Amino acid sequence: QMETNLQKKSKDNLRCPVVCVLGHVDTGKTKILDKIRRTNVQDGEAGGITQQIGASFFPIDAITEKTRPVMELHKVEYNVPGLLIIDTPGHESFTNLRTRGSSLCDLAVLVVDIMHGLEPQTIESIGLLKKRRAPFVIALNKIDRLYGWEPHPELPVQQALEMQADSVKAEFQQRYDFAVRQLQEQGLNACVFYENQDVRTFLNVVPTSAISGDGMMDLLFLLSTLPAKMLIDKIMYHENLECTVLEVKAIEGLGTTMDVIVVNGKLKEKQKIVVCGLEGPIVTQIRSLLTPQPMKEMRVKTPYIHHQEIKGAIGVKICANGIERALAGSNLYVVGEDDDEEELKDEVMKDLGGILKKVKKN
Ligand code: GDP
């Protein structure tokens, strides 16, 4: 089976890279997510983003539309089908995911407030990302707070910077240099992305403002081009299921549900699954697979769409019996005909130690 899966992997069949946003509190993680979601939503209808469970899906057409000036400047085309951006920064269960070396995220955005530089949680995040060898970019956010900043969200940020008064340019340079020196102290070489000649040696920095919108297209551009340069093997779609539980919660009318991110492979209704539970492995059956209704159908009575089958990368809600004590951060396995259920139960409990330590700490 391995063989056929390997054969199927190809550069012509890429999945969406899964992106998460990290950083110190108040650096603008939520605002950045809101901003890129909103600018896309305004365009409405076709090509717009779709809200998934725990994540937003940005189809490549919508990204192309939004980032054309920067694409033209750098003469680069995209080859990923879109981006799946996890939209729960700082979420409790996220803390588990960050520490577990989970394969949930392919690429991270580490948000730094340009007025503050690196802060304690920034440094903690850097430690985790390094440990996992997870590639990331730095969003040097709140550039609109540089004194006298003139917003130019319609331009690539490099050009927006060129348009600024000399005093603004000087303040930017000084604060940017400071952040770069701080990163160096953490053992990281960093460089503003449009001058970066070597993405394997230098971390990309993108100046942004979630308020004025400056640098937002550059951030999307970077997230859409870096995977092909750095992670091409990792984002080739394959059928081996990679699925992580984001959150377990009771929903009126549905009972207890699990929000999961399927990075690779498929899930089907009725499948037998195993997840890690507080009192031991939980074996159950998928009753339904749900994603939210598209925004324009919000007036429809049921807020969810049912799926018989879904394919990664995607965020979905699973309804199943007996999952009240399932743990966020757990892997999810499907028990196939040829699988040894006991083996999968052992496998799924291996992460328990790590998760529990975190749960206690919180
Ligand atoms: P989080 O804790 O990292 O999710 O930060 P938030 O997104 O909640 O932002 C914290 C505060 O900073 C809020 O008051 C935001 O309005 C503000 N903020 C976020 N991004 C920017 C930005 O780019 N420029 C400015 N001036 N304020 C921002």
Structural summary, described in words:
This protein starts with a helix and ends with a helix. It contains ten helices and 18 strands. Helix content is 32%, strand content 26%. With 362 residues, the protein is α/β, with parallel strands linked by helices. It has helices at 2-8, 29-42, 60-74, 92-99, 120-131, 157-162, 166-185, 216-230, 341-349, 352-361; strands at 18-23, 50-51, 55-59, 82-86, 107-113, 136-141, 190-192, 203-207, 242-251, 255-264, 266-268, 272-277, 280-285, 288-292, 304-307, 309-311, 314-319, 332-334. β9 and β10 form a beta hairpin. The protein is elongated. The strands form four sheets. It has an eight-stranded mixed β-sheet, with helices on both faces. Strands 9-10-17-14-15 form a five-stranded antiparallel β-sheet. Bound molecules: guanosine-5'-diphosphate. Residues 23, 25-31, 89, 141-142, 144-145, 209-211 line the site of guanosine-5'-diphosphate (GDP). Guanosine-5'-diphosphate binds next to α2. This is Eukaryotic translation initiation factor 5B. Belongs to the TRAFAC class translation factor GTPase superfamily. Classic translation factor GTPase family. IF-2 subfamily.
